């Protein structure tokens, strides 16, 4: 199973569709919020087309969590009834906590993840890719493909259950970092 991990696309159909071209067929997408709107503090990203992006994503199997820039109207154009602030997903022998990341200042995410049996926390919000392990919990942020705030061009993540790895790539297709998150991969 291949799972594309995206966050902070901020309405860029151009960059998001490029990511899908780079990764090829995926079984599932985890989108960690800030899907369509660029937000008042961000510049308008290259290829800004929120309605086009909504139509593009409606054709995919996507599990969303709500970011600080996501509004009720975004849910409507994405064809969603709800978009939770946090979700827990299972696949293979892995329990994953999904959240946008703006909540991290108010919570001890490692303790929360451990209390709920999550081995991995996927989050966004900062636009900075992160791959780290704390107290046996992986904290993974795919960054932003559209509005990066690091020395990398835009970034995204990929979970491959065959290899058991989370891989961080840039939008030029280069591997930045890889970490094994699944046993037996």
Task: Describe this protein with a few key phrases.
185 residues, alpha/beta, Purple Acid Phosphatase, chain A, domain 2, six-stranded mixed beta sheet, five-stranded mixed beta sheet, globular
Task: Provide an overview of this structure.
The protein is an alpha/beta fold and 185 residues long. The chain has one domain (2-180): Metallo-dependent phosphatases (Purple Acid Phosphatase, chain A, domain 2, 4-Layer Sandwich), CATH 3.60.21. 18% of the residues lie in helices and 30% in strands. The chain is built from 4 helices and 11 strands, in the order βαβαβαββαββββββ. The protein has helices at 13-23, 50-58, 72-78, 109-115; strands at residues 2-6, 28-31, 62-64, 86-91, 94-99, 120-122, 130-134, 137-141, 155-160, 165-170, 175-180. The strands form 2 sheets. A 6-stranded mixed beta sheet has the order 3-2-1-9-10-11, with no helix packed on it. Strands 4-5-6-8-7 form a 5-stranded mixed beta sheet, with helices on one face. Helix 1 runs parallel beside helix 2 (50-58). It starts with a strand and ends in a 5-residue tail after the last strand. The mean pLDDT is 95.
What would you say the CATH architecture is? 4-Layer Sandwich
Structural class: alpha/beta
Q: Give the CA-CA distance, first to last residue.
A: 11 Å
- Please tell me what the overall shape is: globular
